[in-house]
Amino acid sequence: MKKNLLLLFFMLPAIFVKGQEAKTLFVNMPDSLSPILTAVNRADCIDFLNSKMKAQVKNKFDNMSEMTELAPDYIRMKMSDRSDWQMKLLATTDSTKVICTVATACGPACDSEVRFFTTNWKELPASKFLTVPAMDDFFQVPDSTEMDKYNRLRSQADMLLLKADFSKANDTLTFTFATVDYMEKDEAEKLKPFLRSPLVYVWQQDTRSFVRK
């Protein structure tokens, strides 16, 4: 009995870690959070990629969805021709994590929604972990000689559209200003010189939040 208890004691951390892998959490995601894919779809995607096969499945709408990336802490799905979904596991302590998901729809300009969950898929307030960049964060205010031009072009950007992307390699989240894809082409090209590069946010385990780089 003592030997069995000792063995269980040493196995528990490994079981816990495996339970927090992205693929396990993805398969166990509630159907209410996966309106396009069934649990069988999600499991099949994992099996296909593990078998070095193309991870395409027919979703609930009889269209094709494909898992394009799978890592222990990251998943990327091409849900449809115009939508993308990502999932990233972020450490909050040495043994616990939160799930962050990014759902992106394009038509033709892209816009993303970032959400946070416990590993039991209970939603958490996003504002606790991330301050989403505002419109002004993407602009470089010019000197006085170009201010009139800047103000005119800036007024054309009347809707904030952001495309968010995780890095597979590390815990960074990049926001790209997608409003220019919604604007008239000529106006968008004139506005681009006043734009900053995409904004990169880095996950800080000690503060349990994303911090702008």
State the helical fraction. 10-25%
Oligomer: single chain
Largest sheet: number of strands, sense, barrel closure: 7 strands, antiparallel
Number of distinct helices: 5
Taking the alpha carbons of the first and last residues, their distance comes to 53 Å
Shape, please?
globular
Low-pLDDT regions: 2-18
Q: What structural class results from the helix and strand content?
A: alpha+beta
Q: How many strands?
A: 11
Residues in β-strands, percent? 25-35%
The average pLDDT is: 90
Question: What is the H/E order?
Answer: HHHEEEEEEEHEEHEE
Q: Reading side by side through the largest sheet, how are the strands ordered?
A: 1-2-3-4-5-6-7
Q: Please state the CA-atom Rg, rounded to the nearest Å.
A: 21 Å
Explain what this protein looks like in three dimensions.
This protein has five helices and eleven strands, in the order αααβββββββαββαββ. With 213 residues, the protein is α+β, with helices and mostly antiparallel strands. Strands 1-2-3-4-5-6-7 form a seven-stranded antiparallel sheet. It has a four-stranded antiparallel sheet with strand order 8-9-10-11, with no helix packed on it. α4 crosses α5.
Question: What topology does this entry show?
Answer:
Elements: H1 2-19, H2 22-27, H3 39-50, E1 55-58, E2 64-71, E3 74-80, E4 83-91, E5 97-106, E6 110-117, E7 123-124, H4 147-156, E8 162-166, E9 172-177, H5 185-191, E10 199-204, E11 209-212
Helix pairs in contact: 4-5
Overview features:
single chain; 213 residues; alpha+beta; 7-stranded antiparallel sheet; 4-stranded antiparallel sheet; 5 helices; 11 strands; disordered N terminus
